Amino acid sequence: MTIDIGIILVGGLGTRLYPLTKTRPKPLIYFIDKPIIEYQLQALKDANIKIVILCLNYFNEHLTEACIDWEKKFNMKIKLSKEDKPLDTAGPLKLAAKNFPEIYKSQGVIVMNADIYSTIKINELENYFKILIKDNSTVCVIASYEVKDPTRYGCLLIENNKITKFLEKPKTKEEIISNKINAGIYCMTPKIIKDMIELKKVSIEKDIFPLLAKNGNLYNYNLDGFWIDVGVPAEYLYGQRVVIEMLDLVKKNKAYSKNVILGKNVIIKENVSLSNCVIFDNTIINNDCVITNAMIGYNCIIGSNVKIGNESSNVTILGDGVMVKEGVIKVISLIEPNEIINKI
Fold it and tell me: Which of the residues in the chain have pLDDT under 70?
C-alpha cells in the first residue's frame, strides 16, 4: 500500500478575503504568481500524490474549468466532493470517503487546508507517518509551526513528539498551552475517517483531534521553513513580503518592490507611491497616487491624486472593477465590485 490520495479542504466562499471572493472562488485568488491552491497541488505532486479530492460546499464553473487545467498541469486526477449542507472540517472527509471509497484503500491520506502557503516537504511528513503506522492502525500526524500569537489557531501541547493536548483557538492568553500551532496539514490513517460519524457536522479541530490526543494517537511533525495563512488579508500581505525576499523576486523582476506585487497588464503612471500591497490584473493607477496596506482587485481604475489605505488601519480591499475618481483623499474600507467612488 502507498499514500497516493490528498484531500484539500476548500471550504466556503472565502469571506475573509471578501470582496475579492465575490467575483471568483477563494482557491483562484492569486498569491505572488499563481492561484493560492496551486501551492497545495504542487506540494502534493512533489510527494507523488496521484489523486486529489477538493472538498467544498459550493460549485463554481470557473473552479470546475480550472480543475481540468490542473489535471494536465500537475499530471494528477482531481475530483470534487460537494457538501449539500455545511459539515464543518471533519464531515467533509467522511463525505469524500463516501463519494470516493478508494480513500479507504490508501495507506494514509494527506489533508491540507486550501488557503496556506508553506515550504513543507510532504514526502518527509509521509516518511515519519509510515514509521508510526508499523505499530498502530490509528495514527494522525499534524504539521506544527511556531507563531507569536496562537489565539487564531489550534494550540498543541507536545511531549516526546506526541501531541498530548489539542486546544482550538484559545480565548485568553491564560488558555494558551504553547506557541506551536496546527499548520493545517495532516497525514492520517483512513481508519480515522472511517470511525467518524456518518455525514454529520463534525469539527476535526474540536471533536477529532482532542480525542486522538487523549488516546495517544496524535503526533507532531515540525514544519521548518516558512508558513502563513494567506486567507487573512493582513497575513496575505505579510506572507507576500516574506516570499518576495525569500525567493529574491525583485532581482528576478517578479516583484515591483520588496512588498508589492503587480498582476498582468497593470499600468502604473507617474509619481505613484506603492507599499505593502497587491494590485491584480488589468488595473490602472493614475498619476500622484499613494496606495499602502491594500489589495486592489482586477480591472480597477484609480484616478489621479488618490490615497488608498494607510499603515494603521485594517487592510483596504477593492473588489474587481472599482473606479475611484480623481482627487479622492482617503479610501479605507472594503469596496464592493464595480463601485464608483466619487470625491466628496
Answer: 1, 199, 313, 344
